[in-house]
Amino acid sequence: MLQINYQTSRIVVDRLPVACHWSVKHIQTSYHVTILKDDSVVHELTGVGDSTDLLLTGFELSEYGTYTVKINSCNSAGSMVSLSNSFITGNLGNFHGNWIAKPFQNNKDKPEDSSARNTVLRKCFPIQNAIDRAVINIAGLGFYNLYINGNKVSRNELNTDWTNYSKTVYYDTYEIKDYLKTGSNTLIIELGNGWYAPSEMKLFGKYNLRDILCSGGTQAIADIFIQGEGLSVRLSTDETWECTEGAYSTNNIYLGETLDSRLFSGRNTTELVSPRWNNVLLAKGPQGQMVSSYIPKIEKIKCLDFKEIHVLNESEFIVDFGETLSGLIDLSVSASEGQVITLTYAECLDDDYTLNTGSTLAGFIGKEVAPGIVINGGESSPGRAEQIDQLICRSGINHLVNKYTYHSFRYVKVSGMNLDQLLCIMAHKAYSKLESAGDFLCSDLYLNRLYEIARNTKLNNIHSVFSDCARERFAYGGDIVALAKSQVYQFNSAKMYEKTLSDFINDTRKNGGFPETAPFVGIKTNGTGETAGPLGWQLVVPFLLNIHYQHYGTLDLARAFFPFLERQLEHLNSVGYEGLLDCCLGDWGSRDSGAVDYKSGSPARNFTTACIYYLHVKLLHKFSTILKLNGKSEFYAKQIVNIRDRIIADFRNADDSFADKSQTSYVFALYMELSDNPKKLASDLANAIRDNNYLVTCGIFGQSFLYEVLRHYDENEVIMKWLHACGGFKSMLHDEDTTLKEFFGDIKNGSCNHAMFSSYTSWMTQGPGGIIIEDNARGSDSVRIQPAFLDSLQFVDCTHQTVRGYISCKWQRLTKGIEIVINIPFNLKKCVLVISEEYNVTGNIHEPQHSDGINQYFDIRNAGEVSVLLT
């Protein structure tokens, strides 16, 4: 395996350094790297040792090149393994083209832009000679689809990647040779509003995204490079391109879209009937730096057939897809001219077959959130911000597949047609196509179900950002922190984490603080001043950077982002310890929270806020040490001591508990290592959960940290019983549910497709699964295998794909004992198997390195496969 920039295929690079990671099945003693451009060597280097990751520099990237990286890895016996992979370059972000738009559409002051028919751009051009290569670099705002000679280019959906377009615009590079032909060619760019041309409705009654985001009218920019025998052509977006109105009369990322089938022929919405082509307008465009997109793209992942149809009357029926998904509808009908079909989407259905759309209302618009208080979205908003599509039909067969919106739904109410007209209805799951990085299977079917539910819910809410739910679709820093570790054990998140960090850095506030969400949408509840977010939500940058370093391991991000971390901490220090105590929402989602005021009702809020401040400083100290900034490291080390002493003085009780003795306070004290007797404190926490019928009352931070500390102190049985508790996830989930809800208990104001409580999967991997990337790891180079052999489990099969290679840990109970089979990559810095001293260990393993009176520690580095029996 050879990864380039954490990817294995379809790799586009526009800047140095290039990160390479590889794995081989031998003990490496040396390696040789060769980089070729179009079959010519441009760089070589040789290294000694077992390092299997490199940041490649020392050569220059040129436009429209094909580069191959070849690595020869050698062992002490002289055997060699050869690996290779390739990447391409486009225009390196140096666009010759201009942003182009439909005339007058790019005026931000025109509110009608977001509700007008969508824009279609066209360029016709001839090709006379045979071509060897053709490449296009393109960005379309808000979303775009690219067609060449009637064929869609790529499988991508809901593209371009969302970010702060005033700082960064991500462009795509495609090889398009196979789409072109000798003779006349037609290239079409169809545009949708996306996040660049949002409507002026006020989410939660106050946040107008059109005013807050970098926004404008839909537009595109493109460079095309065509090369062949005697041919080298560059075509770019300029005033010679044409534009017209498309077939979508409305499209909104939240509310849905209206497609008028009378305006096009066939199934392709760009095959317009009698279009009026006009000259384009050269638009100003956003000012962000053009950067090649590097994250996994949103695609249609899986097609679902309906499970049941319930007819309400002659012109209405409800389609049940059997599971909640985020995705696109796919509808085919036979209809009459001008017939209007309406599709309304919901996650829930009431007992009387009434569609319940309350959990997906955009920004709560139209929802009664308290007696007599209904959220008003303003003049540009519908009274109730439901997810609704409309299909205006032509006579004959009509087809609708969402292009510029996505929905969170299980149920669809179809109105305006009878069941006999229905030819086909399907749903496509659609989200950023992250590669799986882990699996978990065990003898407990309910635990397996929880794992898959967490996977489904996480993926349902990844659409170029880690969003919270369909109702908001925002990337909240706090949610990302809570799920950061569980995310990397389930998915290859290296590039998504890099983009997320960049998003928050791009939206750094004027005072140096980080926003509550990135892109910033105006929300700043209990923030640290001006428009900076609450302290726990600002934690996302140092916390995510640390997880990225532990699991993916390059220092370039730490170097690039360290100045922003310093500036943020300067801001926090200026607010001061006392001033910060009220600048957070605390352990969000805790069942111990006060019902009156969600902003201040979290348990031990001042204590947890102080702890988060402390963690900010600890992480900055870690990175200053790693980066060998010794003077700064010493400064932060002193600050750590001062803050820790202050927290202990202010919040430690006589019995060594902290603050209000809530579960949250125990967890934070343990996670922050504040106790002089942590094992007793962990035991006290476990007993508190037992005494509460195994119900965990922590919120999103508390639960995420709880799985770490209870596993560390071998209280895995408590976690197991919590996950099975009747008042826990079993009360949240009904028999057929495939996604988690936003809250336990009453979900009147909550989403039914919300991942913030899915952090338990990290415990499954690290606890019964036994695969632990240690806290001091760099790029997963330090691994601990320590399965928790819970009495209720008969077997566990756990895997994790790291940048160093594949890890698996499988164990099962046999009559003669517990059999464990472990596979680990070669060339790790450390890999230790930890087994309780109560077991006798036999198999292909050396004697333990040492014992501590509780556990035996076996060095299994470079062992490959280990098979042992515990008796």
TrEMBL record:
<keyword id="KW-0378">Hydrolase</keyword>
<dbReference type="GO" id="GO:0005975">
    <property type="term" value="P:carbohydrate metabolic process"/>
</dbReference>
<dbReference type="InterPro" id="IPR008902">
    <property type="entry name" value="Rhamnosid_concanavalin"/>
</dbReference>
<dbReference type="Pfam" id="PF05592">
    <property type="entry name" value="Bac_rhamnosid"/>
</dbReference>
<feature type="domain" description="Bacterial alpha-L-rhamnosidase N-terminal">
    <location>
        <begin position="130"/>
        <end position="299"/>
    </location>
</feature>
<dbReference type="InterPro" id="IPR035398">
    <property type="entry name" value="Bac_rhamnosid_C"/>
</dbReference>
<dbReference type="Pfam" id="PF08531">
    <property type="entry name" value="Bac_rhamnosid_N"/>
</dbReference>
<feature type="domain" description="Alpha-L-rhamnosidase six-hairpin glycosidase">
    <location>
        <begin position="436"/>
        <end position="766"/>
    </location>
</feature>
<feature type="domain" description="Alpha-L-rhamnosidase C-terminal">
    <location>
        <begin position="782"/>
        <end position="839"/>
    </location>
</feature>
<dbReference type="Pfam" id="PF17389">
    <property type="entry name" value="Bac_rhamnosid6H"/>
</dbReference>
<dbReference type="Pfam" id="PF17390">
    <property type="entry name" value="Bac_rhamnosid_C"/>
</dbReference>
<dbReference type="InterPro" id="IPR013737">
    <property type="entry name" value="Bac_rhamnosid_N"/>
</dbReference>
<feature type="domain" description="Alpha-L-rhamnosidase concanavalin-like">
    <location>
        <begin position="312"/>
        <end position="419"/>
    </location>
</feature>
<dbReference type="InterPro" id="IPR016007">
    <property type="entry name" value="Alpha_rhamnosid"/>
</dbReference>
<protein>
    <recommendedName>
        <fullName>alpha-L-rhamnosidase</fullName>
        <ecNumber>3.2.1.40</ecNumber>
    </recommendedName>
</protein>
<dbReference type="GO" id="GO:0030596">
    <property type="term" value="F:alpha-L-rhamnosidase activity"/>
</dbReference>
<dbReference type="InterPro" id="IPR012341">
    <property type="entry name" value="6hp_glycosidase-like_sf"/>
</dbReference>
<dbReference type="InterPro" id="IPR035396">
    <property type="entry name" value="Bac_rhamnosid6H"/>
</dbReference>
<dbReference type="InterPro" id="IPR008928">
    <property type="entry name" value="6-hairpin_glycosidase_sf"/>
</dbReference>
